[in-house]
């Protein structure tokens, strides 16, 4: 019989009068609430649960469905089931202490990697604390899920700060908030629209444009851009900024496309670091390594760094690498390998974004008729060991 790792070892007893799915759900619920399972941890698949516990899949689905309704787990199609329980990003982020207390909702998308969202939340929470209102960090997997979370606090919401991924196109949540006259500040990864709410953005396109210009102005012409696999096109703001800088200088844009390389066509099943490493090995095999590799995010860049190191190529003398974000995940990647982060990157001012969003929300509460504001914050280059800055 398959043996699962310790946090998932659950004993089902046939003698206590409680149905098997209730026992399964209760045991998993307790481990989530007590912190034995961490935020966004991937749960075993149904086959593994079934084999290890001796339960049929219908029983398991009943138990998991119960936990999903309670908001303790969530599913991502094609990836699996994850723990939703979100440990507070700060001591002052908690659930309301009384039913009538007004609440600030910090709403952000969640997934297997979301550390940078928590940095924004922490900035907002620190600014909002001390206003006599509770602060709730509420993660969502899709628009319907976000509305379900907001509905739980309906009638007590003082205001909402939403983090919006740049792939979002629907406006269900905006309509929900507008109909209820709930003040909202939205944080965008690209230029925000005006009209519905106050907004804060960081200039993704400008950040990659500036990063690319840094190399061009030093006379470098051979600059490769690696897009995140899920946005494998030239439409993401970061890729647009790179392309714009190259075109303005009369240089050929080189955007890596894994679909054009047989060995890379399954990279959507890899981690971002494995993807970055795979790109380097493809280019090295073809003897097409550029002077500079600019990756759409830091974890791809970390994989590039690892592969370049393994190949014995010197940085920044023979090749330079630039990431994007300077987020928690980048530093944890290198911390796990027991050395200080060496990667140069374009830093997104996450904490400042959270603070600015909170300032706009407090100003809106003080004066509801203020014209809506859209505030943009610049990124900055951070030079470490992989560029000649």
Question: Which features does this protein show?
Answer:
single chain, 389 residues, alpha/beta, Arc Repressor Mutant, subunit A, Rossmann fold, 3 domains, 6-stranded parallel beta sheet, 6-stranded mixed beta sheet, 37% helix
Question: What do you see in this structure?
Answer:
It is a single chain. With 389 residues, this protein is an alpha/beta fold. It folds into three domains: 6-83, Winged helix-like DNA-binding domain superfamily/Winged helix DNA-binding domain (Arc Repressor Mutant, subunit A); 103-203 and 349-380, Rossmann fold (3-Layer(aba) Sandwich); 204-347, Rossmann fold (3-Layer(aba) Sandwich), CATH 3.40.50. It is 37% helix and 17% strand. It has twelve helices and 14 strands. Strands 4-3-5-6-7-13 form a six-stranded parallel beta sheet, with helices on both faces. Helix 1 crosses helix 3 (57-69), helix 7 packs parallel to helix 8 and helix 9 crosses helix 10 (298-310). The radius of gyration is 23 Å and the shape is globular.
């Amino acid at each position: 019989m398959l043996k699962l790792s310790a946090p998932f070892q659950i004993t089902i007893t046939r003698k206590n009068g409680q149905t098997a799915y209730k026992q399964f759900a209760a045991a998993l619920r307790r481990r989530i609430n007590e912190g034995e399972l961490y935020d966004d941890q991937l749960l075993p698949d149904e086959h593994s649960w079934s084999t290890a516990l001796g339960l049929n899949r219908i029983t398991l689905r009943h138990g998991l469905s119960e936990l999903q309704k309670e908001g303790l787990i969530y599913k991502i199609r094609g990836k699996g089931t994850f723990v939703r329980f979100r440990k507070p990003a700060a001591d002052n982020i908690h659930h309301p202490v009384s039913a009538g207390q007004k609440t600030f909702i910090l709403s952000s998308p969640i997934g297997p990697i979301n550390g940078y969202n928590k940095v924004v939340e922490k900035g907002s929470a620190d600014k909002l604390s001390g206003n006599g209102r509770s602060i709730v960090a509420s993660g969502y997997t899709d628009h319907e899920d976000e509305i379900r979370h907001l509905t739980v606090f309906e009638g007590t919401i003082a205001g909402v700060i939403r983090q919006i991924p740049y792939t979002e196109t629907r406006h269900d949540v905006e309509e929900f908030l507008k109909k209820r006259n709930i003040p909202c500040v939205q944080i965008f990864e690209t230029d925000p629209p005006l009209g519905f709410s106050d907004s804060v953005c960081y200039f993704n396109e400008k950040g990659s444009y500036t990063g690319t210009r840094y190399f061009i102005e030093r006379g470098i012409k051979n600059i490769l851009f690696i897009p995140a696999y899920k946005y494998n096109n030239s439409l993401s703001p970061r890729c647009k900024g790179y392309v714009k800088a190259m075109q303005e200088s009369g240089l050929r844009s080189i955007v890596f496309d894994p679909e054009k390389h047989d060995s890379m066509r399954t990279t959507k099943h890899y981690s971002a670091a494995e993807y970055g490493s795979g790109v380097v090995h493809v280019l090295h095999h073809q003897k097409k390594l550029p002077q500079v590799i600019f990756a759409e995010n830091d974890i791809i860049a970390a994989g590039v760094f690892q592969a370049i190191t393994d190949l014995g190529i010197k940085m920044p003398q023979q090749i330079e690498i630039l990431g994007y974000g300077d987020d928690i995940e980048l530093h944890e990647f290198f911390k796990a390998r027991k050395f200080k982060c060496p990667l140069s990157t374009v830093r997104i001012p996450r904490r400042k974004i959270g603070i600015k969003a909170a300032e706009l929300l407090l100003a809106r509460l003080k004066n509801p008729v203020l014209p809506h504001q859209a505030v943009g914050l610049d990124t900055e280059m951070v030079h470490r060991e992989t560029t000649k800055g």
